[in-house]
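Prompt: I keep going back and forth on a fold encoding question. Comparing notes only helps if you start from a blank page. Show me how you would write down a chain together with its backbone fold. Please set it down just below, with no commentary around it:
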Amino acid sequence: MPHLIVFSNNQKDKVIDKYIELYAEYERCEMIPIVRDRHIGIVSWVSTNRDDDKLTLSSFMGKCQIKNSEPTLQSELFNLNKSKNIEIPEVCECIKDAIVYVLKDNDVKFDDKVITKNQLFNAFRIENEDIYNALKISLYKWSTEYIEIGCKNILKDIEVYMSGLFKDNYGIELDSFGYLRFDDSIKIDEQSFEVDSNTYNPIFGTIHSAKGQTHTSTLYIESYYDGKYESDIMLDVISGIGNTEKLIVETNKKISSIESEIEDIESSGKVRGIKTREATIKKLKKSIEKIEDCSKMLYVGLSRPQYFLCMAIEEERFKKLTVNDSVWKVVNV
């Protein structure tokens, strides 16, 4: 069962220790399988330090620093390399994901729909065998080179290859390659935790950087973004008693009701009260955008682990939840 780790503000430095302690205990009790290459993930929407007391991932990390808040192929390969003895097929899949990411970033679609990896590479295989075979050779070359000397040179090679491939064969000009950028400073420092002589090395990252990853276990830490925490926006969803669709439907009902009020005011030949109601509608539409964004973050972050999931939430916000005991086991730090 997923766990909610509840902490007070002066206990935030103990949250990660508690998470590792739980993981170790469940391993000992054989409630979690012991795997050779653990990927113990700790993720949050926002990682950067703040000047105030609002919480982000950095608030829990002590001296650890995350310098890549936005995903790149370089950071994905780095995380992959940190979690296991990396092999060529895994690097190939990571580069395939990168190709799809770049196409999405350039708003390239497949039959007017968002491109998926399977669609793209099946299309190459079925429609143009020469392209497909050449790409397989390039993928192997890039993967081998990455394992031998790192990713600095292959990033530019992939960019040049993609530019030529899609311009020459499909007439598509690609101009956004931010996902393939190289940064000398990228480093996610490890922090070790000793639990009964076993060392556990969690891997820290933003939710963006965790896309596509599979963790052995994940700790999702609430963070402050655009004026709110996740539980401020998705109270019933996190409680386990509601869903995103219900939140959006209820908000749209409020918008429709206010729009009807505006129509009534206009039909009576008056204007007083319209601007106030229009401002309220604007706020409600903005709240729908926040619900959708937050829902995506929760889905990505909470769907990473294979065996064990925790979410950390501060005590004051936890008190606002109506926790469904069949969804969450509550653990206090």
Observations:
- Residues 63-69, 187-192 have pLDDT under 50 and may be disordered.
- The CA atoms of residues 21 and 189 lie 20 Å apart.
- The longest helix spans residues 274-302.
